[in-house]
Amino acid sequence: MGKVVMYSSVSVDGFIADANDQPGPLFDWLTSGDVPLDDSGVLNVSQVSYDYTRAYWDQIAVTIAGRRVFDLTDGWDGKPPGGVDHVVVVTHRPPPEGWDPEAPFHFVNTIEAAATKAQQLAGDRLVEVAAGDVGGQMLAAGLVDEVRMDVVPVAFGSGKPYFGSVSTQHLLDNPEVLQGNRVLHLRYQVQH
């Protein structure tokens, strides 16, 4: 089975979006360098961020996200983001009307079903879990192996918390830390 990694860019005060679900400057680091991160011509980062992020992205087979993220992104137009092979959406609602059943998206109604489906699809590759409510629920259930944060130098004051509504303590190992341009890359192993 592949490792399960909870991930997002995050403000220094712990938010992945503001109160209106807007990321503000959280992704500015992805356009603040001179090294192309992909073939889009849009994403350019520092060399440190490229080495860290590209290696991570290349390992991800499946992303798990909640219905809120799915709806906010319009389901990525049926194409998984960042070259990921599949997306598993945790939701109690059916796929949107007119949704292409051939799109590599899988709709499940529990975090446990999401973890099982994602592991089946990923094999030995990484499963990424979007931070926020679904990621926090999976961490609380002991289904996350690693926490990655790209910490951006902005304070939101309020918004959508990185760990969602997690209300219990979870210990993480010492962080691995890399500094990019306008971002601090943190990586923690979860203590089980």
Automatic annotation (TrEMBL):
Transmembrane segments: none annotated. One of its GO terms (biological process) is riboflavin biosynthetic process. SUPFAM superfamilies: Dihydrofolate reductase-like (SSF53597). Residues 4-170 form the Bacterial bifunctional deaminase-reductase C-terminal domain. One of its GO terms (molecular function) is 5-amino-6-(5-phosphoribosylamino)uracil reductase activity. It holds the Pfam family RibD_C. This is Dihydrofolate reductase. It comes from Kribbella sandramycini.
